[in-house]
Amino acid sequence: MERRSVLVTCGGKWVGMVLALKQALSEVPALAGGRLLVADRDELTPAGCFADARFQVPGINDPDYIDALVELCAREGVCALVPLIDIDMRRLAPAADRFAAVGTHLVSPTVDLVDLCLDKERFHHFCVDAGLSVPRAFSGDDLDEASFPLFFRRRNGFGSIGSGRADTLEEARAALQDAELVFHEFVDAGEVSVDAYINRDGNCTVRVARVRDKVLGGEAQRSHTIDDPATLSLADATIDALAAQGLRGPLNVQMFLSDPRQLIEVNTRLGSCTVLSNAATGGRLLRSLLSECAGGTADGDRDDYQRDLWIYRYTGDVFHAGPQPVRFSPARTEHPVEFVE
User: Fold this and answer.
1) Residue 130: φ, ψ to 5°
2) How many whole angstroms separate alpha carbon 182 and alpha carbon 176?
3) Could you report the per-residue pLDDT of 180-239, keeping only the tens digit for each?
4) What average pLDDT does the segment 154-183 reach?
5) What pLDDT score was predicted for residue 217?
6) Measured between alpha carbons, how far is 249 from 255 in angstroms, rounded to an integer?
7) Dihedral sign for Cα atoms in the order 37, 40, 44, 50
8) CA-to-CA dists, residue 156 to 86, 163, 249, 250, angstroms
9) What are the residues whose beta carbons fall under 8 Å from the beta carbon of 143, sequence distance 6 or more?
10) Looking at the chain, which runs of residues are DSSP E strands?
11) Are 76 and 7 in contact (CB under 8 A)?
């Protein structure tokens, strides 16, 4: 079976990403005629309604999750499997060889690199060793040495869940009772993200800086692209350091707009607002990803992107009678989606 389709897992409400991937799919000759598929534990999701077909699979933590996805990839001719959330990557990365055995490329780094970037304490030590600028960090054992306020996050948390500010030593110690946390000095500055792509040769071919103008639940709702030498310099150093460790594919570098710039974290996946960076490169970011999944090449100048391009993400509505979608707002113009039980 020819493998021309792309499968997005845990699509949820990521309609913009599904539409952008569908467009990229149509522009990669090796994948001509392929379909954009969405798999989710819910029978109906907004993203699934805008895909070419949607499939219901067990939840991420279900023992049968991987088996169901492998079978789906084999049956539906999936060339590329694209996870969009951190906990999904952590679950899928150890099964990369199983997907490869049925001809499907999992868009994910190795297990070790996924863990490196998800484990905030380990990532901080990596940055210090690589000479990358980060806020001063404190463990729960050395809080007595800290100057307050401090910002804290779960060591293996996602988004902004479990994050907060501690203004006193007592508040910091109280927060430690609920989870394993990492603390760093509080940085009073805005945030900037850099979406990038590292090709299979280890070269960064896409690198787009964008300010996170409004963030809700860890996701940018408003963002715009910028040309800022300080941001791009730290991003390049971070990207090159991770590429030297073997990282390939998409990544998102987040940092404070402080002076000097300081790293927050790196996500080794597509972000929900990567659609802005994809648009700023004329679609080159997602075309690069899908082209390499299909055995092609990905080249380009990392500085080639549109500056001062803005995005304002908004909420749409899907009306459905039971599991059957009946109306969309904004209206969907594509052919009806197929649902396979």
Assistant:
1) -90, 0
2) 9
3) 899 999 999 999 999 999 999 999 999 999 999 998 877 889 999 999 999 999 999 999
4) 87
5) 75
6) 20
7) negative
8) 10, 11, 22, 20
9) 150, 169, 172, 173, 183
10) 5-9, 36-40, 53-56, 78-83, 105-106, 137-138, 150-154, 164-166, 181-185, 191-198, 204-216, 219-226, 249-256, 262-267, 310-312, 317-321, 324-329, 338-340
11) yes
Q: Which residue, among 104, 109, 49, has the nearest Cα to 78 in the 3D structure?
A: 104
Read off φ and ψ for residue 304, nearest 5 degrees. Answer: -90, 85
φ and ψ at residue 72, rounded to 5 degrees: -65, -45
Cα–Cα distance for residue pair 86/271, rounded to 1 Å = 10
- Long-range pairs of 37-41 with CB within 8 A, sequence gap ≥ 24: 37/5, 37/6, 37/7, 37/8, 37/72, 37/76, 37/78, 38/7, 38/8, 38/9, 38/11, 39/7, 39/8, 39/9, 39/10, 39/11, 39/69, 39/72, 40/9, 40/10, 40/11, 40/12, 41/10
- Whole-angstrom CA distances from 187 to 142, 149, 184, 231, 262 are 19, 9, 9, 16, 9
Helix locations, the chain, DSSP H: 15-26, 46-49, 65-76, 86-92, 96-101, 111-118, 120-130, 169-175, 229-244, 274-280, 284-293
pLDDT digit string, tens, across residues 10-66: 878 899 999 999 999 999 999 999 999 999 999 999 999 999 999 999 999 999 999
Ordered by where they begin, the domains of the chain are 5-108+315-340 (3.40.50.20), 114-118+188-308 (3.30.470.20), 136-185 (3.30.1490.20)
